[in-house]
Amino acid sequence: MPTASLACAIWAASLVTAAAFDLQGHRGARGLAPENTLAAFRTALALGVSTLETDLAVTKDGVVVISHDPMLNPDLVRGPDGQWLGAPGPAIHALTLAELKRYDIGRINPASKYAQQFPGQKPADGERFPTLAELFAAAGPDVRFNIEIKTDPARPADTPDPATFARLAIDAIRAGKAAGRTTLQSFDWRALLEARRLAPDIPTSCLAIESGGMDTVGRASGRPSPWLAGLDLAAQGGSLPRLAGQAGCAIWSPFWRNVTAEDVKEAQALGLKVIPWTVNNPAEIARLIDLGADGLITDYPDRALPVLAAKGLKIR
Protein backbone atom coordinates (compact mmCIF):
# COMPACT_ATOMS: atom_id res chain seq x y z
CA MET A 1 0.00 0.00 0.00
CA PRO A 2 1.50 3.39 -0.93
CA THR A 3 2.12 5.80 1.92
CA ALA A 4 1.16 8.81 -0.18
CA SER A 5 -1.37 9.43 -2.89
CA LEU A 6 -2.20 12.17 -5.31
CA ALA A 7 -4.89 13.38 -2.92
CA CYS A 8 -2.42 13.48 -0.03
CA ALA A 9 0.07 15.43 -2.12
CA ILE A 10 -2.53 18.00 -3.16
CA TRP A 11 -3.83 18.30 0.39
CA ALA A 12 -0.33 18.69 1.85
CA ALA A 13 0.61 21.28 -0.74
CA SER A 14 -2.20 23.52 0.51
CA LEU A 15 -0.68 23.88 3.97
CA VAL A 16 0.72 27.26 4.87
CA THR A 17 3.46 25.75 7.01
CA ALA A 18 4.32 22.22 8.06
CA ALA A 19 3.76 23.17 11.70
CA ALA A 20 0.32 24.68 11.16
CA PHE A 21 -2.69 23.15 12.87
CA ASP A 22 -6.08 22.55 11.22
CA LEU A 23 -8.77 23.99 13.52
CA GLN A 24 -12.18 22.94 12.23
CA GLY A 25 -15.46 24.48 13.33
CA HIS A 26 -17.96 21.63 13.84
CA ARG A 27 -21.24 22.30 12.04
CA GLY A 28 -19.89 25.84 11.83
CA ALA A 29 -19.53 26.55 15.53
CA ARG A 30 -22.36 24.60 17.14
CA GLY A 31 -21.61 25.69 20.69
CA LEU A 32 -21.94 29.35 19.76
CA ALA A 33 -24.55 29.60 16.98
CA PRO A 34 -27.33 27.39 15.55
CA GLU A 35 -25.66 24.42 13.91
CA ASN A 36 -25.18 24.18 10.17
CA THR A 37 -26.61 27.64 9.53
CA LEU A 38 -24.94 30.50 7.72
CA ALA A 39 -24.89 32.26 11.10
CA ALA A 40 -22.78 29.43 12.55
CA PHE A 41 -20.37 29.48 9.62
CA ARG A 42 -19.96 33.25 9.90
CA THR A 43 -19.25 32.86 13.62
CA ALA A 44 -16.58 30.24 12.98
CA LEU A 45 -14.90 32.28 10.28
CA ALA A 46 -14.89 35.38 12.49
CA LEU A 47 -12.97 33.36 15.10
CA GLY A 48 -10.39 32.37 12.48
CA VAL A 49 -10.95 28.65 11.96
CA SER A 50 -8.99 27.13 9.11
CA THR A 51 -11.78 24.79 7.98
CA LEU A 52 -15.56 24.71 8.12
CA GLU A 53 -16.84 21.24 8.99
CA THR A 54 -20.39 20.44 7.94
CA ASP A 55 -22.84 17.76 6.76
CA LEU A 56 -24.86 17.08 3.64
CA ALA A 57 -28.37 15.97 2.78
CA VAL A 58 -30.13 15.83 -0.58
CA THR A 59 -33.63 17.12 -1.31
CA LYS A 60 -36.30 15.37 -3.36
CA ASP A 61 -35.37 17.51 -6.35
CA GLY A 62 -31.69 16.65 -6.07
CA VAL A 63 -30.31 19.77 -4.39
CA VAL A 64 -27.38 19.28 -2.01
CA VAL A 65 -28.15 21.04 1.28
CA ILE A 66 -26.56 21.38 4.70
CA SER A 67 -27.98 19.21 7.49
CA HIS A 68 -26.63 16.76 10.01
CA ASP A 69 -29.89 14.84 10.29
CA PRO A 70 -31.53 13.10 7.33
CA MET A 71 -34.92 13.78 8.95
CA LEU A 72 -36.27 17.08 10.25
CA ASN A 73 -35.21 17.18 13.90
CA PRO A 74 -37.82 18.48 16.38
CA ASP A 75 -35.01 19.71 18.64
CA LEU A 76 -33.97 22.16 15.92
CA VAL A 77 -36.81 22.73 13.48
CA ARG A 78 -39.89 24.97 13.59
CA GLY A 79 -42.59 24.71 10.97
CA PRO A 80 -44.04 27.50 8.84
CA ASP A 81 -46.46 28.20 11.70
CA GLY A 82 -43.54 28.95 14.01
CA GLN A 83 -44.22 25.92 16.21
CA TRP A 84 -41.67 23.25 17.08
CA LEU A 85 -42.17 19.98 15.27
CA GLY A 86 -43.87 17.40 17.44
CA ALA A 87 -41.94 14.42 16.07
CA PRO A 88 -39.01 13.62 13.75
CA GLY A 89 -39.56 13.86 10.01
CA PRO A 90 -40.24 14.04 7.24
CA ALA A 91 -36.99 13.02 5.58
CA ILE A 92 -35.19 15.83 3.77
CA HIS A 93 -34.97 13.50 0.78
CA ALA A 94 -38.79 13.54 0.66
CA LEU A 95 -39.01 17.35 0.47
CA THR A 96 -38.25 19.70 -2.39
CA LEU A 97 -35.88 22.58 -1.70
CA ALA A 98 -38.81 25.01 -1.72
CA GLU A 99 -40.61 22.90 0.87
CA LEU A 100 -37.48 22.57 3.03
CA LYS A 101 -36.87 26.32 2.98
CA ARG A 102 -40.16 26.88 4.82
CA TYR A 103 -38.64 25.57 8.07
CA ASP A 104 -36.76 27.72 10.61
CA ILE A 105 -33.56 26.31 12.16
CA GLY A 106 -32.39 29.43 13.96
CA ARG A 107 -32.42 28.11 17.55
CA ILE A 108 -32.61 24.95 19.67
CA ASN A 109 -35.93 23.99 21.20
CA PRO A 110 -35.42 25.20 24.80
CA ALA A 111 -37.58 22.35 26.13
CA SER A 112 -35.30 19.69 24.63
CA LYS A 113 -32.46 17.82 26.34
CA TYR A 114 -30.30 18.84 23.40
CA ALA A 115 -30.59 22.50 24.43
CA GLN A 116 -28.91 21.70 27.75
CA GLN A 117 -25.72 20.73 25.92
CA PHE A 118 -25.29 24.20 24.40
CA PRO A 119 -26.56 26.80 26.87
CA GLY A 120 -24.36 29.52 25.37
CA GLN A 121 -25.60 29.13 21.82
CA LYS A 122 -26.87 32.46 20.48
CA PRO A 123 -30.15 32.13 18.52
CA ALA A 124 -30.46 33.45 14.97
CA ASP A 125 -34.16 33.26 14.21
CA GLY A 126 -35.08 33.05 10.56
CA GLU A 127 -32.15 30.88 9.50
CA ARG A 128 -33.09 28.31 6.85
CA PHE A 129 -31.40 25.13 5.68
CA PRO A 130 -28.58 26.41 3.43
CA THR A 131 -27.70 24.79 0.15
CA LEU A 132 -24.07 23.83 -0.33
CA ALA A 133 -23.93 26.42 -3.11
CA GLU A 134 -25.11 29.09 -0.67
CA LEU A 135 -22.41 28.10 1.80
CA PHE A 136 -19.70 28.34 -0.84
CA ALA A 137 -20.96 31.75 -1.93
CA ALA A 138 -21.17 33.08 1.63
CA ALA A 139 -17.76 31.77 2.71
CA GLY A 140 -15.81 33.16 -0.23
CA PRO A 141 -13.01 31.77 -2.41
CA ASP A 142 -10.35 31.05 0.20
CA VAL A 143 -12.15 29.07 2.89
CA ARG A 144 -11.51 25.35 3.30
CA PHE A 145 -14.28 22.79 3.87
CA ASN A 146 -14.59 19.35 5.44
CA ILE A 147 -17.92 18.03 4.20
CA GLU A 148 -19.61 14.86 5.41
CA ILE A 149 -21.68 12.54 3.25
CA LYS A 150 -24.41 11.31 5.60
CA THR A 151 -25.51 7.81 4.66
CA ASP A 152 -26.28 4.92 6.99
CA PRO A 153 -26.01 1.26 5.94
CA ALA A 154 -28.85 0.41 8.33
CA ARG A 155 -31.20 3.12 6.99
CA PRO A 156 -30.83 3.14 3.20
CA ALA A 157 -34.24 4.67 2.54
CA ASP A 158 -33.41 7.92 4.35
CA THR A 159 -30.95 9.22 1.76
CA PRO A 160 -29.70 8.59 -1.76
CA ASP A 161 -27.49 5.53 -2.02
CA PRO A 162 -23.77 6.17 -1.29
CA ALA A 163 -22.72 6.20 -4.95
CA THR A 164 -25.44 8.66 -5.97
CA PHE A 165 -24.81 10.82 -2.91
CA ALA A 166 -21.07 10.96 -3.64
CA ARG A 167 -21.72 11.96 -7.25
CA LEU A 168 -24.15 14.73 -6.27
CA ALA A 169 -21.73 16.04 -3.63
CA ILE A 170 -18.82 16.10 -6.07
CA ASP A 171 -20.90 17.82 -8.74
CA ALA A 172 -21.89 20.51 -6.23
CA ILE A 173 -18.31 20.95 -5.04
CA ARG A 174 -17.06 21.36 -8.60
CA ALA A 175 -19.89 23.77 -9.42
CA GLY A 176 -18.80 25.83 -6.41
CA LYS A 177 -15.18 25.81 -7.63
CA ALA A 178 -14.18 24.36 -4.25
CA ALA A 179 -12.57 21.03 -5.22
CA GLY A 180 -9.06 22.26 -4.40
CA ARG A 181 -10.02 23.23 -0.85
CA THR A 182 -12.50 20.55 0.15
CA THR A 183 -12.22 17.20 1.93
CA LEU A 184 -15.04 14.66 1.78
CA GLN A 185 -15.59 12.65 4.96
CA SER A 186 -17.98 9.90 5.97
CA PHE A 187 -18.55 7.12 8.46
CA ASP A 188 -19.91 5.14 5.52
CA TRP A 189 -16.72 4.29 3.67
CA ARG A 190 -18.74 3.07 0.66
CA ALA A 191 -19.32 6.74 -0.18
CA LEU A 192 -15.61 7.48 0.21
CA LEU A 193 -14.55 4.69 -2.13
CA GLU A 194 -16.98 6.02 -4.73
CA ALA A 195 -15.73 9.57 -4.21
CA ARG A 196 -12.16 8.39 -4.75
CA ARG A 197 -13.23 6.71 -7.98
CA LEU A 198 -15.09 9.76 -9.28
CA ALA A 199 -12.78 12.51 -8.02
CA PRO A 200 -9.28 11.32 -7.05
CA ASP A 201 -8.24 14.97 -6.75
CA ILE A 202 -10.58 15.53 -3.77
CA PRO A 203 -9.08 14.07 -0.56
CA THR A 204 -11.21 11.85 1.64
CA SER A 205 -11.34 11.50 5.41
CA CYS A 206 -12.22 8.17 7.01
CA LEU A 207 -14.45 8.81 10.03
CA ALA A 208 -14.72 6.17 12.74
CA ILE A 209 -16.07 5.69 16.24
CA GLU A 210 -15.91 2.90 18.79
CA SER A 211 -18.19 3.60 21.74
CA GLY A 212 -21.18 2.20 23.58
CA GLY A 213 -23.56 4.55 21.81
CA MET A 214 -22.22 4.05 18.30
CA ASP A 215 -19.66 1.70 16.84
CA THR A 216 -18.87 1.86 13.14
CA VAL A 217 -15.82 -0.38 13.47
CA GLY A 218 -17.35 -3.56 14.91
CA ARG A 219 -14.04 -4.82 16.19
CA ALA A 220 -15.62 -7.42 18.48
CA SER A 221 -17.82 -8.97 15.80
CA GLY A 222 -14.97 -10.62 13.93
CA ARG A 223 -16.63 -9.61 10.65
CA PRO A 224 -16.16 -6.60 8.36
CA SER A 225 -18.37 -3.76 9.54
CA PRO A 226 -21.10 -2.64 7.11
CA TRP A 227 -19.84 0.92 7.66
CA LEU A 228 -16.38 0.12 6.28
CA ALA A 229 -17.28 -0.84 2.70
CA GLY A 230 -16.47 -4.50 3.25
CA LEU A 231 -12.87 -3.79 4.17
CA ASP A 232 -11.56 -6.30 6.70
CA LEU A 233 -10.05 -4.83 9.85
CA ALA A 234 -8.63 -8.21 10.88
CA ALA A 235 -6.72 -8.43 7.60
CA GLN A 236 -4.95 -5.21 8.62
CA GLY A 237 -4.00 -6.59 12.01
CA GLY A 238 -6.78 -4.64 13.73
CA SER A 239 -5.23 -1.33 12.64
CA LEU A 240 -7.76 1.37 11.74
CA PRO A 241 -5.05 3.64 10.29
CA ARG A 242 -3.98 0.86 7.95
CA LEU A 243 -7.60 0.21 6.99
CA ALA A 244 -8.11 3.93 6.29
CA GLY A 245 -5.04 3.84 4.10
CA GLN A 246 -6.46 0.86 2.24
CA ALA A 247 -9.63 2.90 1.64
CA GLY A 248 -7.52 5.61 -0.01
CA CYS A 249 -8.15 8.22 2.66
CA ALA A 250 -5.75 11.12 3.14
CA ILE A 251 -7.06 11.67 6.68
CA TRP A 252 -8.08 9.37 9.51
CA SER A 253 -10.67 11.07 11.72
CA PRO A 254 -11.43 9.06 14.88
CA PHE A 255 -13.73 9.93 17.75
CA TRP A 256 -11.56 11.93 20.14
CA ARG A 257 -11.95 9.46 23.02
CA ASN A 258 -10.56 6.66 20.83
CA VAL A 259 -7.26 8.37 19.98
CA THR A 260 -4.00 6.87 21.25
CA ALA A 261 -0.42 8.00 20.78
CA GLU A 262 0.39 4.72 19.05
CA ASP A 263 -2.41 5.13 16.52
CA VAL A 264 -1.37 8.70 15.75
CA LYS A 265 2.22 7.64 15.11
CA GLU A 266 1.14 4.73 12.95
CA ALA A 267 -1.27 6.83 10.89
CA GLN A 268 1.31 9.55 10.26
CA ALA A 269 3.93 6.96 9.34
CA LEU A 270 1.47 5.77 6.68
CA GLY A 271 1.12 9.29 5.31
CA LEU A 272 -2.25 9.99 6.91
CA LYS A 273 -3.22 13.16 8.75
CA VAL A 274 -5.02 12.61 12.08
CA ILE A 275 -7.95 14.93 12.85
CA PRO A 276 -10.08 13.76 15.82
CA TRP A 277 -13.71 14.77 16.28
CA THR A 278 -15.53 16.44 18.22
CA VAL A 279 -13.58 17.66 21.25
CA ASN A 280 -14.67 20.65 23.35
CA ASN A 281 -12.76 20.43 26.64
CA PRO A 282 -9.57 22.56 26.63
CA ALA A 283 -7.63 19.95 28.64
CA GLU A 284 -8.55 17.25 26.12
CA ILE A 285 -7.71 19.58 23.25
CA ALA A 286 -4.27 20.03 24.80
CA ARG A 287 -3.90 16.26 25.23
CA LEU A 288 -4.68 15.59 21.57
CA ILE A 289 -2.19 18.23 20.50
CA ASP A 290 0.44 16.61 22.69
CA LEU A 291 -0.35 13.24 21.08
CA GLY A 292 0.56 14.79 17.73
CA ALA A 293 -2.85 15.33 16.11
CA ASP A 294 -2.68 17.38 12.92
CA GLY A 295 -5.92 19.16 13.68
CA LEU A 296 -9.24 18.73 15.46
CA ILE A 297 -12.94 19.34 15.07
CA THR A 298 -14.70 21.32 17.80
CA ASP A 299 -18.04 22.96 18.62
CA TYR A 300 -16.11 25.72 20.40
CA PRO A 301 -13.26 27.15 18.32
CA ASP A 302 -13.00 29.94 20.89
CA ARG A 303 -11.94 27.38 23.53
CA ALA A 304 -9.30 25.87 21.27
CA LEU A 305 -7.63 29.14 20.28
CA PRO A 306 -5.95 29.88 23.67
CA VAL A 307 -4.69 26.28 23.85
CA LEU A 308 -3.17 26.53 20.38
CA ALA A 309 -1.57 29.85 21.27
CA ALA A 310 -0.09 28.38 24.47
CA LYS A 311 1.32 25.48 22.44
CA GLY A 312 2.86 27.88 19.91
CA LEU A 313 0.76 26.47 17.05
CA LYS A 314 -0.42 28.46 14.07
CA ILE A 315 -3.71 27.81 12.34
CA ARG A 316 -3.59 27.07 8.63
User: What is the CATH fold-level name?
Assistant: TIM Barrel
Low-confidence sequence ranges: 1-18
Mean pLDDT: 94
Shape: globular
Helical content band: 25-40%
The total strand number stands at 9
Account of the 3D structure:
By secondary structure, the chain is an alpha/beta fold. It has one domain: TIM Barrel. It has helices at 6-13, 38-47, 97-100, 113-117, 132-139, 162-175, 189-198, 240-246, 261-269, 282-291, 301-310; strands at residues 22-26, 51-58, 64-66, 144-149, 182-186, 204-208, 251-254, 273-274, 295-298. Strands 1, 2, 3, 4, 5, 6, 7, 8 and 9 form a 9-stranded mixed β-sheet that branches.
Write the layout of secondary structure elements.
Elements: H1 6-13, E1 22-26, H2 38-47, E2 51-58, E3 64-66, H3 97-100, H4 113-117, H5 132-139, E4 144-149, H6 162-175, E5 182-186, H7 189-198, E6 204-208, H8 240-246, E7 251-254, H9 261-269, E8 273-274, H10 282-291, E9 295-298, H11 301-310
Parallel strand pairs: 1-2, 1-9, 2-4, 4-5, 5-6, 6-7, 7-8
Antiparallel strand pairs: 2-3
Summary, kept brief:
Helix content is 30%, strand content 13%. It is an alpha/beta fold. Strands 1, 2, 3, 4, 5, 6, 7, 8 and 9 form a 9-stranded mixed sheet that branches.
Defining key terms:
316 residues; alpha/beta; TIM Barrel; 11 helices; 13% strand
